[in-house]
């Protein structure tokens, strides 16, 4: 990922989009801070302030290192901790020796903290900074200026804190809306590839296998036709609730189609995933939805194989789900290894699972 290219607004992963914008913010803050501060090194040197010049050189050097590492290695040097520290020290010392001309730099330094540090850290850092600047202003300037400086700098910090807090909440809410299904609260397809790839990496590095389960409600279209779409939506919401009750905290539930759900089971062997799938189908058929709508579901189970991509893994499970539909529904089909045949394990009796028309999964 290039942190300097504008984030792709069509990206399917909202989390990466947010990270891209944050990298852009970090880059521009350091870049323009370097442009603004670099000339001051010579100015302060000519005015006979070698210590301040040295501090400004450190500030500029840190900015260059951050920019270079972001561009070349895609890493954030010390997570930006040096920028606010050096900015506050330079602004404070400059105010002590230069008076009002140094004070002006305290305001952008205080505001920048809220864009570079986590909110709690920024609040603590700015509270300390404001206290130090108040002490400096008390001894350096007349009393009237002391109160003006303290309150104006305090209000600047307060406004920046509120803005950063609201932006953080907005980012979290937009990410939640973009990554979850609004009806059921399940994850949606935007996170699918990343989560499956993460399980594949665990399989490749640590030999800890994961499985996924696809579940599709049988003849769901008939619910919308007979009871209406509102009833269908309520069934899907209840379906998601029933599935969640049987899952662990580490398991991840997706809604990947109209009535199709996917469960990612980290560190779960095929045998255990098959057992869970059977239990889930039993819980779906054992009790009516909305008190009078009886449903069944079909399911497939696939354990990740070594060397396969997430799309191949998902496709094996998808083909097994089609097989479950073709074999009569209300049953679990285990997706075989790439070189083995599919094996069906019906939940119905031998006389109840005659093949019928295959509905799209």
Summarize the SSE layout with pairings.
Layout: H1 14-46, H2 50-73, H3 82-98, H4 100-103, H5 106-116, H6 119-140, H7 143-179, H8 192-206, E1 211-217, H9 221-227, H10 229-245, E2 252-255, E3 260-265, H11 270-286, E4 297-303, H12 310-326, E5 331-334, E6 343-346
Helix pairs in contact: 1-2, 2-3, 3-5, 3-6, 5-6, 5-7, 6-7, 9-10
Give helix and strand order, one letter per element, not per position: HHHHHHHHEHHEEHEHEE
> Radius of gyration in whole Å, from Cα?
30 Å
User: Distance between the terminal alpha carbons, to the nearest Å?
Assistant: 34 Å
- Estimate what percentage of residues fall within beta strands: 5-15%
- Multimeric state: single chain
Global geometry:
elongated
Quick overview:
It is built from twelve helices and six strands. It has 361 residues and is α+β, with helices and mostly antiparallel strands.
């Amino acid at each position: 990922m290039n942190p300097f290219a504008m984030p792709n607004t069509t990206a399917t992963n909202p989390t990466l989009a947010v990270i891209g914008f944050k990298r852009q913010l970090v880059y521009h803050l350091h870049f323009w801070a370097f442009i603004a501060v670099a000339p001051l090194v010579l100015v302060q040197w000519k005015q006979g302030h070698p210590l301040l010049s040295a501090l400004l050189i450190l500030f500029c050097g840190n900015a260059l290192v951050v920019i270079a590492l972001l561009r070349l290695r895609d890493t954030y040097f010390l997570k930006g901790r040096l920028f606010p520290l050096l900015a506050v020290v330079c602004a404070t010392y400059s105010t002590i020796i230069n008076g009002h001309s140094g004070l002006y730099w305290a305001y952008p330094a205080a505001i920048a903290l809220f864009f570079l540090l986590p909110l709690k850290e920024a609040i603590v850092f700015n509270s300390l900074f404001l206290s130090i600047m108040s002490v400096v202003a008390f001894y350096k300037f007349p009393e009237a200026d002391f109160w003006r400086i303290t309150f104006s700098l305090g209000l600047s910090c307060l406004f920046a804190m509120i803005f950063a807090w609201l932006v953080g909440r907005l980012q979290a809410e937009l990410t939640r809306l973009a990554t979850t299904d609004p009806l059921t609260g399940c994850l949606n397809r935007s996170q699918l590839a990343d989560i499956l790839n993460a399980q594949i990496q665990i399989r490749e590095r640590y030999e800890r296998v994961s499985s996924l389960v696809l579940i599709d409600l049988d003849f769901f279209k008939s619910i919308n036709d007979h009871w209406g779409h509102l009833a269908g939506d309520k069934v899907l919401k209840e379906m998601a609730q029933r599935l969640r009750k049987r899952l662990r905290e580490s398991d991840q539930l997706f809604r990947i189609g109209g009535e199709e759900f996917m469960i990612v089971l980290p560190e779960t062997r095929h045998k255990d995933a098959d057992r869970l799938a059977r239990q889930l189908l039993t819980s779906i058929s054992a009790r009516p939805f909305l008190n009078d709508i009886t449903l069944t579901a079909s399911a497939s189970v696939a354990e990740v194989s070594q060397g396969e991509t997430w799309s191949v893994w998902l496709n094996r499970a998808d083909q097994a789900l089609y097989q479950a539909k073709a074999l009569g529904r209300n049953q679990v089909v285990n997706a075989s290894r790439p070189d083995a045949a599919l094996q069906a394990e019906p939940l119905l009796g031998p006389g109840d699972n005659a093949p019928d028309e295959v509905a799209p999964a």
